[in-house]
Write a structure and sequence with these properties.
2 copies of one chain form a homodimer. Chain A is α/β, with parallel strands linked by helices. Chain A folds into 2 domains: about 170 residues, 3-Layer(aba) Sandwich (Rossmann fold), CATH 3.40.50.720; about 150 residues, Dihydrodipicolinate Reductase, domain 2, CATH 3.30.360. Helix content of chain A is about 35%, strand content about 25%. Chain A has a 7-stranded parallel β-sheet, with helices on both faces. Chain A is globular and about 60 Å long. At the A-B interface, helix 1, helix 3, helix 4, strand 13 and helix 10 of A face helix 1, helix 3, helix 4, strand 13 and helix 10 of B. The complex binds NADP nicotinamide-adenine-dinucleotide phosphate (2 copies). One NADP nicotinamide-adenine-dinucleotide phosphate binds next to helix 1 and helix 10 of chain A. The site of one NADP nicotinamide-adenine-dinucleotide phosphate has 25 residues of chain A, from helix 1 and helix 10. Chains A, B: Belongs to the diaminopimelate dehydrogenase family. Chains A, B: It comes from Borborobacter arsenicus. Chains A, B: Pathway: Amino-acid biosynthesis; L-lysine biosynthesis via DAP pathway; DL-2,6-diaminopimelate from (S)-tetrahydrodipicolinate: step 1/1.
Chain lengths: ~325, ~325
C-alpha cells in the first residue's frame, strides 16, 4: 500500500468521535491525533493509543498532518476555527448553517489560497450528499421539481427547544415525513406542499414532578417557528423509557427530483438515507472527502471548495483504472 | 445569457431522439445538427427546422459544433465511431458494454488527447448515475455491501431473445426486482442473494397462428443465460394488447449500499430511478455531461474521461457561487 494519509481531528464531540470510528474503517488513512480546547488528559479517545493534544499545539504540528477534520459546532466554533486552521492545514468541515455558507466560504478561501491549502467546507449529508443530489437532479431533469424530506430523525435543535419548556425534565423530538406527501411526490405529480403537509413532529417527554401535562403539551405544540406550523404529537413517557429507547441519534431522509423529459414521459430520481447514527454517517462523509482533499491539494487545487467541486472518483481509495474496470 | 453551447447528435435512434428532446429543455444549449449514416432526407427530427446531415459531413463541420453526442449502439457503432470522432470533436457517449470499457477508454483517449479534445464515455444511468452511486456508497461506507436491482423495466435484449423463439409473433420482457430481496437489503442485513432471488422476469407474448403455447412457454423459461437462472412468467396476449400496453420503454432500478460505521450503527444509502422512458432519461444524462465536457475542455482537460472524473457542479447551468448560495 502507498503511504497512509495522516488525518487529525479538531474538536471531540459526537462528530469527532464519529471520525475516529470512520478512520478505523479506512486502511489508507491513519489517525495521528485529536486536538481539543478542553484539557487533553480528560478526553477519552475510542482507541487509547491515539494522542490527544491541546488545540493550541496545532500551529507546531503542521508537518505531522495531511488533512485536519474540523468537528466543531457550526454556530460558534467553525466561523472562528475554519479560517484560522485553513491557513495552516488542508481541512474538511461540516459547516451546516445554510444561509451563511457564502460568507463562510469567502472567509476560508482567502487564508487557504494564500497558504496553498485546500479547504472543503460543508460536507456531510445535508449540506453534503443531499445537496449534490439536489443539483444533479435539477441538471438531469431541468423541467421538474425537487423535494427534500427529512426523517425519521432525531432533531437536536427541536429536542433542545422542548427541554426548555417549563415542567419538562427530559425530551426528544423526531421529525417524520408525511407518507401521503411522499407518495404524491413519488408519483411525479409535482404537488405544491405546505410545511404542515410535508413533515410532522413527534415528541417524547418526561415530566417534572407535579408538572401539568396539558399545559406542557400546549406550550410545545404552539411554540412559534419550532412547532406551530406542524402537526405535533406529544407522548409522555418515563425517564427509564427515555433512557432506554431514545438515545440513538437516528436520522435520514430523501431528496426526490421528478420531471418530464417530454410531454409524454415523466422520470423520478430518489436519493435516500436511513442513518442509524447521524454523527457517525456525517463523519464517514468527512473522512471520504479528506481523501479527496489530500489528492486535490497534491494536484495544486488550492482554496475553499464544496462537495460540488469534487469528482466522485476522488472519494474512492481505488485508482481511476480500477474503478473503470470494476465498477463503471 | 452567455453564448449557447452548440451541440450535435451523431446517430438518430431512440437515444438520438431523446437527446433532441433533452436539448429543448436546456436553454443554455442549442441543437445545431443531426448526423446519420442513412440518407439524411429520410430522417424526421422532432423539430423540422433542425438540419440533418450525412455522417460523412462531420469532418467539415468541426468549427460548428462544441460537443457531439454519440448516439450509436454500443455493440457495433461506438467502437468505431468513438475513437474516430473523438479526434475531431469533444464527445459524450453512453457506451454500455461493461466488460469492454477499459479497452474502449484507451481507444478513445489517444485520439482525443492528441487533438486536445475531451471525450466522456459511458454516461447514462447504468453505466452512469448507478456507477457513481456504487463507488460513492462504497467510499462512504467501506465496511458494507452494494446491491444493484434493475426494474421494473423493459429489457431490449431479453425481448429480442423471446422474439426469436419459434412460434412467437411479438413479445416484450420486463425485469422486476424481487420485493423480499429488496426488503432484506434495505434492512441492512447484507444478505447473500442468488440471481434467482434478486430478479424475476415477466414476458408478454403474442403467438403466431397455430403455435403451441406450452412449447413456446418451455422454450422461453429454459433458454440458457437469458431465462434459465430466473423465475419467469409468460403471459400470452393479443397483438392489440401488445401494441396498446407495452410500447413505453420504462426502466429504472436502485443501487443500495448498506454498511456499519461502528459495531452498533448501521447505515443505508439508496439511489433509485423510476423512468418513464429509458432512452429519454439516458439522453438527459448525456446532455448534462455535454455541458460539463464543454467546460472541462475550456479548462484544458483533454482525453477520455468517465462520470467518475466529473465534479457534480459542472453538470449544472448555474455558477458555483449561485449553487453554494441557493442549493448547498
Ligand atoms: N453537514 C451535515 O450533514 C451535518 C450533520 C450533522 C452535524 N453537522 C455539524 O456538525 C457540528 C458538530 O456536531 P456535534 O454533534 O459533534 O457537536 P458537539 O458534540 O456539540 O461538539 C461540538 C464541539 O463541542 C466541544 N464539546 C464536545 N463535547 C463537549 C463537552 N462534553 N463539553 C464541552 N465541550 C464539548 C468539542 O470541541 P472541543 O473538543 O474543542 O472542546 C466539539 O468539537 C454541528 O454543529 C453541525 O453543524 C453537520
Ligand atoms: N448507459 C446507459 O445507461 C444506457 C441506457 C440506454 C441505452 N444505452 C446505449 O445507447 C445505445 C443506443 O441505444 P438506442 O436505443 O438509441 O439504439 P438504436 O435505436 O438501435 O439506435 C442506434 C443507431 O442505429 C441507427 N438506427 C436507428 N434507427 C434505425 C433504423 N430504423 N434503421 C437503421 N438504422 C437505425 C442510428 O444510427 P444512424 O442514424 O447513423 O443510422 C442509431 O444511432 C445502446 O446501444 C446502449 O448501449 C446506454
Amino acid at each position: 500500500m502507498a503511504e497512509q494519509i495522516r488525518v487529525a481531528i479538531a474538536g471531540h464531540g459526537n462528530l469527532g468521535r464519529g471520525v475516529e470510528a470512520a478512520i478505523a474503517k479506512n486502511p489508507d488513512m491513519r489517525l495521528v491525533g485529536i486536538y481539543t480546547r478542553r484539557s487533553p488528559e480528560h478526553l477519552k479517545p475510542r482507541d487509547a493509543v491515539t494522542p490527544v493534544h491541546a488545540m493550541s499545539a496545532l500551529p507546531d504540528h503542521t508537518d505531522r498532518i495531511d488533512v485536519l477534520i474540523l468537528c466543531g459546532g457550526s454556530k460558534d466554533d467553525l466561523p472562528r476555527q475554519g479560517p484560522e486552521l485553513a491557513a495552516l492545514f488542508n481541512t474538511v468541515d461540516s459547516f451546516d448553517t445554510h444561509a451563511r455558507i457564502p460568507e463562510y466560504f469567502t472567509a476560508v478561501d482567502a487564508p487557504a489560497r494564500a497558504n496553498r491549502r485546500t479547504a472543503l467546507i460543508s460536507a456531510g449529508w445535508d449540506p453534503g450528499m443531499f445537496s449534490i443530489n439536489r443539483i444533479v437532479g435539477e441538471a438531469l431533469l431541468p423541467d421538474g421539481a425537487t423535494y427534500t424530506f427529512w426523517g425519521d430523525g432525531l432533531s437536536q435543535g427541536h429536542s433542545d427547544a422542548v427541554r426548555r419548556v417549563p415542567g419538562v425534565a427530559g425530551a426528544v423530538q423526531y421529525t417524520r415525513p408525511v407518507k401521503e406527501a411522499v407518495d404524491r411526490v413519488r408519483s411525479a405529480s409535482r404537488p405544491t406542499l405546505t410545511t404542515r403537509e410535508k413533515h410532522r413532529r413527534e415528541c417524547f417527554v418526561v415530566l417534572e414532578e407535579g408538572a401539568d401535562a396539558e399545559q406542557v403539551h400546549n406550550a410545545i405544540v404552539t411554540m412559534p417557528h419550532y412547532f406551530d406550523e406542524y402537526d405535533t404529537t406529544v407522548n409522555f413517557i418515563s425517564a427509564e423509557d427515555l433512557a432506554r429507547d431514545h438515545q440513538a441519534m437516528v436520522h435520514g431522509g430523501f431528496v426526490i427530483r421528478s420531471g418530464n423529459t417530454s410531454k409524454e414521459n415523466a422520470q423520478v430520481i430518489e436519493y435516500g438515507l436511513k442513518l442509524g447514527s447521524n454523527p457517525e454517517f456525517t463523519a464517514s462523509v468527512l473522512v471520504a472527502y479528506a481523501r479527496a482533499v489530500h489528492r486535490l491539494n497534491a494536484m495544486g487545487q488550492y482554496g475553499a471548495m464544496t462537495v460540488f467541486d469534487v469528482a466522485p472518483g476522488l472519494l474512492s481509495p481505488k485508482s481511476p483504472a480500477q474503478l473503470r474496470a470494476e465498477q463503471l
